[in-house]
Write a structure and sequence with these properties.
homodimer, 258 residues, DNA-binding, 8 helices, alpha+beta, 4-stranded antiparallel sheet
Chain lengths: 258, 258
Amino acid sequence: MMSGEDMSGVLPKRGPVSDPPASVPQDCRNCGAYKLCVSLWLKSGDASLFDRVVKRKQMLKRGETLYRMGQSVEHLYVIRGGSVKTCITSEDGRVQIIGFHTAGELLGLEDMQTREHNCEARATRLTSVCEVSIDRFEELAKKDAAIQYEIVKIMSAEVRHTQELVLLLGKHNAEERLAAFLLSLSQQFAQRHYSTIEFDLTMSRSDIGNYLGLAEETICRVFARLQDDGLVTSEGRRIKLNDLERLQRIANHRSALS
Amino acid sequence: MMSGEDMSGVLPKRGPVSDPPASVPQDCRNCGAYKLCVSLWLKSGDASLFDRVVKRKQMLKRGETLYRMGQSVEHLYVIRGGSVKTCITSEDGRVQIIGFHTAGELLGLEDMQTREHNCEARATRLTSVCEVSIDRFEELAKKDAAIQYEIVKIMSAEVRHTQELVLLLGKHNAEERLAAFLLSLSQQFAQRHYSTIEFDLTMSRSDIGNYLGLAEETICRVFARLQDDGLVTSEGRRIKLNDLERLQRIANHRSALS
DNA sequence: CGCGCTATTGATGACGCTCAAGACCCGTGG
DNA sequence: CCACGGGTCTTGAGCGTCATCAATAGCGCG
């Protein structure tokens, strides 16, 4: 469930902003990049250096961009709350959404090398991020194996995620793609200890379609079909998965004919 | 041109195998992973350690696998000569080719973390690889920023490559996909100082189709169409690109109607 | 020299796109 | 407060691209 949203980081109700620099901020504990930040914090020796590496609370309204393709990379971004989509653009302007990201994810790593953003990141709603100076981050990473480990881990996951998407686009039909998409959302929510079977989408039908290589209308129609079959209940962005088992079979087995 | 193939590493005509361990092997100079290996070699202190890290000349016949999905990762592999395809498999057995790889490329990095292969690598013809012990490699990487740099660089490129493929599958039609594919091959050959406009495919129509999310027959038909339009000449696996300019337009511009 | 894999070409039809129209929702401003 | 407007969602009709099935030709390899 996330109607009110995971905005604990975005709108810190208990004591805004300035924490004593000597201790890890309270609301960082729930951040997916917590370990990475702690490494930064510990290795940076004195806490003031940590503050120079990580600047907190950059706010983005729905539709605002974190960075664009071609821009030079000055920061990495950790999502504190809200949600972000990343997309790449072909020469003739066609846009492909590559991923949807939520609290705890680190964005921009794959562009660290080239120092030029290869894709665009845009908030899909009110979103808050931590800014990490790329130069200082890299400096620390050089000295700290734990940070390197995290970097490789994140990038490996990214490769795997993108490869899964290729498999989906290359070998699965519309129904299978949407089923797989819903299940992967479900798993994401599970990791965050939200409900696995009922949640709100953070993105439009159009964005889902773009991501899955389908038209917006097709997404609607497949939703309708899944609903007719009793597999899901969808009312706008509120989704309920009524039969994970059968969804799995649709996503994975060509032979699931009923 | 590569009919006789880039097998200088596979069949080392001038003095097989055992080089004096004190110097870098002659035929390593042309390897794409040269810098990485030199780093390994320099940092390993004594050359005998280098020999423990990199074991040379593992030979694979056409169709043999380097590793399979699910296998535990014991080595990374540098391709010395020949060509390898990597693919992932969905639960119900559908296979998606993710990439074609040739001399100089390092395979397996993205599975280093999990220590479990996430995809399968298979030789598409006679191929030779160097085996790199994953444990020793990781050990050295921890101490050497240059190696870390190379790792992140390779993985970044992999992410970008896979994202490009998603864009291709998600937003481009058959003709655009094949045109883009041929152009990317052309660029690869350019980097190796082979001919940009005439070369031999290392993979079957079926593999190309699989990679591009199309049927084998569609690949044939699109080849035929491109040939009719005078854009390429294809006779079996021998390809000649007659108009790079116009191919570019087909690959990138929806509006290229002639 | 023939077997098997690869490539080619045709006929047919399905899946998903495009275009179109209308409903709905929500924020904004009169 | 209501009306307006833009964005989102939904549903329908028709069509195009590409998959599928099938048959044959070609090629390389043992």
